[in-house]
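Handoff note, outgoing to incoming analyst
You'll be picking up this chain. Sequence as last confirmed:
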Amino acid sequence: MVFRAERWWGSHNPTRVLRSAQLVMTVLLGICVPMLLVLLAWELVADPNPVPAVITIAGLVLLCFFFSYVFVVPDDLTSSATDRTLAIASKIFMHTRNGMTPDAALGACKIILPETLAAAICFTDGERVLASWGEGSATAPAGEPVCLDSTLRVMDSGEMRAFARDDNGLGKHYFPRLRAGIVAPLTVRDRCVGTLELYYPRFSSIDMRQTALASGFASLISTQLASFELERQDELTARVELRALQSQVDPHFLFNTIGTIVSLVRTEPEKARSLLIDFSNYYRRTLSDSEALTTLEHEFEQGVRYINLMQARYGESRLRVSSHIDPATHDHKVPPFILQPLLENCIKHAMREVDPLSIVVSSRCTPDGVEITVEDDGVGMSDHVRAHLFDAHDSAEEGGDETITGDGSVKRGCGLALSNVLTRIRFFFGEDSGILVESEEGVGTRVTVRLVGEPHEPTRA
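Most recent structure output, in case you need it:
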């Protein structure tokens, strides 16, 4: 029996059940109390025996206790209502976590309406109806222009309003059979972005509990919309930063690479032709869409193009590159433009004055993702330098002299490149992914990129 009672309570709206119980008890109390008082007076006058009077008084006391029990909800019912409220909030969040779209608004309507005494509900964006549900919802379809004065006033003031309307002009409004309602604002950053509207058959149905429900649900949805807006702004900001990084072109590298190709046109035309193709493909990839994920195989091909251009300038005996790419990682999705900056750092910061530089590029699958490693046998770095690697520092910006490196580009702090790569990794894979740098002076440096889990495909703006 207890199980059945719990199922019945969970499948019915507690607001309506308690409201009905309170109404029934009020009627019973209004009928029974006067009758019991009359009966008590008659018994005291007509019969000196006190027993009937005591029984009547006991019945009156029990009735009052039962009345108090219904109106002062016990803790177990309160706890059940709290659990239900949290469950409702969770269900609403599942619909509105990606913004207040018409489908999300309709889902929220179906969840909220049964929790109130309202006959209908709708959401608007201040200009048009997003969704409606309940009695007469066919008169307020999605896309219907807002025509209720209370909606416009709430959009202007940002304050909740309760309204009642008479028979005049009801045909001009949606929900024509419902004569009263509550309009609550949906606000994001102190700006009203829409309304939650509850409609009732009569104004007397609106009490403090109904206004509190409307205000509470509107505040809950406003908080979720604000959270979604912050996430969207963060993603837009990161996307703009990625586009800026992707579009960076070092003019020194550009001009000197072209000069190298020109110098080979007469002496080694086939090699010049091959380098020109690599150069064209390299910049086509560099200036392509930075928001689209690529495969590790394509990213490695981009790194090979860069190495070919550098070997043309330094000579293959001075710059040696080998690779150990696990075939199982070829199709793994990675952020674009993460390998070439690591190779560029090796050439700019690890190469000695005379001795050749060897670079090894490798990849392997891990239990939770993939690792990409770039290792060199160059000059290495101190612990102090490694501690500040991810500071996006550019010495030229502090008034230092620009140094043109052998690849024809401006020598910058390697933290600029590493911080850019880390930004890409965190944007697509989250905070669990990152870069590990190991280095020893005079021995070399190993940079490991750890990509954990599946990448996040950003939504288009």
